[in-house]
Design a protein that fits this description.
It is a single chain. This protein is an all-alpha fold. The chain contains 9 helices and no strands. Helix 2 crosses helix 5, helix 4 packs antiparallel against helix 5 and helix 8 runs antiparallel to helix 9.
Length: about 170
C-alpha cells in the first residue's frame, strides 16, 4: 500500500506545465530535424517512423496548420526515441554549421582585404594557406581592382572568393 502512495506522489510531482514544456521541447527538436538536409538527416540515429514523419513534414511545408500538427506528431514519436543520441548528433551538426558559417565569413573578409591591401595581404594569406597559388591570387586581385575602378559588377571578386573557398575550406 505504501508503494502505491509513493508512486502516486511521484507522478503528482510532475505538473501539467512541466509536461507541456517537455512536449514543446520535443516539438522544437522535431523542427530542428525537419530543417536538416537529406545528408544530415541520414546521420541521425532515428526510427523509420520518425524519418517518415520528417519526410511528410517536408512535403507539407507550405501548409501551416498541417505542418503544426505534423510537428506535434513528430514530438510524440520522439518520446519513444533515444533522445540522448539524437540531441548529441544534432549538437554536432549545429556546431559544424556554425564553424562553416564562421569560416565563410572569414573568407569573405579575407577577399575584401586582399582587394584593398594587395601584395602585403597576399603574403600573409600565403603563409596561412600555402596551398594557394600566388600568381592566381595576384591576377584575381588585379582584375577585381580594375572592375572596381571602372564601377563594373564585382564578378572577379566573386571568383576570388570562390577560389579561396574551394582551396581553403
Amino acid at each position: 500500500m505504501n508503494k502505491k502512495v509513493e508512486e502516486i506522489s511521484e507522478e503528482e510531482e510532475i505538473s501539467k506545465s512541466q509536461i507541456k514544456r517537455e512536449a514543446e521541447a520535443l516539438k522544437e527538436i522535431g523542427r530542428q530535424l525537419v530543417a536538416l538536409n537529406a545528408k544530415q538527416l541520414a546521420q541521425i540515429p532515428a526510427s523509420d517512423t520518425l524519418m517518415e514523419g520528417i519526410k511528410v513534414a517536408h512535403k507539407i511545408a507550405t501548409k501551416h496548420e498541417a505542418l503544426r500538427r505534423q510537428y506535434q506528431y513528430i514530438g510524440k514519436v520522439l518520446r519513444t526515441e533515444d533522445m540522448e543520441k539524437i540531441t548529441a548528433k544534432l549538437d554536432i551538426l549545429n556546431d559544424n554549421n556554425r564553424k562553416r558559417t564562421h569560416a565563410i565569413a572569414h573568407l569573405e573578409l579575407l577577399t575584401e582585404q586582399l582587394i584593398e591591401l594587395g601584395d602585403p595581404k597576399v603574403n600573409d594569406t600565403l603563409e596561412m594557406y600555402p596551398q594557394l597559388e600566388r600568381q592566381k591570387l595576384r591576377q584575381l586581385i588585379r582584375q577585381a581592382n580594375k572592375e572596381k575602378k571602372l564601377e563594373k559588377p564585382a564578378k572577379t571578386a566573386k571568383e576570388l572568393f570562390v577560389y579561396l573557398k574551394t582551396n581553403c575550406l
